[in-house]
């Protein structure tokens, strides 16, 4: 599974989700924190990783980035981030590395990291990786953290993973609208909602796309596993 964040802004026009990946924005009203770019596949990715983790008796993991190349001659690597939390790439400590899809993640110690301005990449130095040959051997490996390792959020911020599977209700009528199946990054993040009440023999209708702004999504209740929306005319018709 990949570690998601998603950003919900209080108005229109703000950059939601990844945007400048190295910066965590203070939300105007509510924000989603994303650590996975492939939000539409999030539930499938999570289920797959959960089954693998359960079968191997290992923790569940979130992908925070991918090693894309060696950097220089002293063992540093370039990492493409899939997380809105820059501390994942900058603060020393344990990360996890998956060398192939069939192997279990292994711990690796981050010694230091820095952001490459203008590249959208981080440069990271790991313990035990001292030269370019060793760094090149890590190319294409995903970087992971246990899914229990979640940085604290500010008030009004949410992890994308926590939104997947929430039921969506019309606040006025309390009618069930559907279920959140993903989050799509846009100018404002969009909740991707599978419509409720479709008969099995009906042609599936396209998912609803609900702007994740406080004016339209005033209630997110993680305890009750529900979202309430106040859709403008035409949004869910």
Note down, in words, how this protein is organized.
This protein is mainly beta and 237 residues long. Helices cover 12% and strands 34% of the residues. The chain is built from four helices and 14 strands. The strands form three sheets. Strands 2-3-6-5-4-7 form a six-stranded antiparallel β-barrel. It has a six-stranded mixed sheet with strand order 12-11-10-9-14-13, with no helix packed on it. A hairpin with a 5-residue loop joins strand 9 and strand 10. The longest helix is centred in the first third of the chain and has 15 residues. The protein is elongated and about 60 Å long. It starts with 30 loop residues before the first strand and ends in an 8-residue tail after the last strand. About 19% of the residues have low confidence.
**How many β-strand runs?**
14
Low-confidence stretches: 7-28, 37-58
The overall pLDDT, averaged over residues, is 80
Radius of gyration: 19 Å
What's the order of the H and E elements? EHEEHEEEHEEHEEEEEE
Helical content stands at 10-25%
Apparent shape: elongated
Biggest sheet: strand arrangement: 2-3-6-5-4-7
Quaternary form: single chain
- Beta content comes to 25-35%
Question: Biggest sheet: strands, sense, closure?
Answer: 6 strands, antiparallel, barrel
Distance between the termini: 33 Å
**Individual helix count:** 4
Structural class: mainly beta
């Amino acid at each position: 599974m990949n570690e998601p964040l998603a950003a919900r802004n209080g108005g229109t026009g703000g950059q939601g989700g990844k945007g400048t990946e190295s910066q965590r924005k203070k939300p105007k009203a509510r924000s989603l924190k994303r650590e996975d770019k492939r939000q539409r596949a999030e539930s499938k990715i999570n289920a797959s990783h959960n089954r693998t983790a359960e079968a191997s008796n290992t923790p569940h993991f979130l992908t925070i980035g991918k090693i894309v190349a060696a950097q220089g001659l002293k063992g540093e690597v370039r990492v493409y981030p899939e997380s809105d939390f820059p501390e994942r790439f900058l603060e020393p400590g344990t990360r996890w590395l998956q060398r192939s899809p069939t192997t279990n993640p292994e711990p690796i110690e981050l010694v230091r990291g820095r952001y490459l301005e203008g590249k959208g990449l981080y440069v990271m130095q790991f313990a035990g990786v001292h030269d370019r040959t060793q760094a090149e051997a890590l190319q294409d490996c995903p970087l992971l953290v246990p899914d229990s390792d979640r940085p604290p959020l500010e008030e009004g911020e949410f992890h994308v993973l926590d939104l997947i599977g929430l039921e969506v209700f019309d606040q006025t009528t309390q009618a069930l609208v559907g279920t959140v199946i993903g989050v799509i990054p846009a100018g404002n993040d969009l909740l991707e909602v599978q419509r409720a009440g479709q008969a099995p023999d009906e042609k599936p209708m396209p998912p609803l796309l609900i702007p994740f702004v406080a004016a339209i999504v005033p209630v997110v209740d993680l305890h009750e596993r529900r979202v309430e929306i106040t859709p403008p005319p035409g949004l869910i018709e």
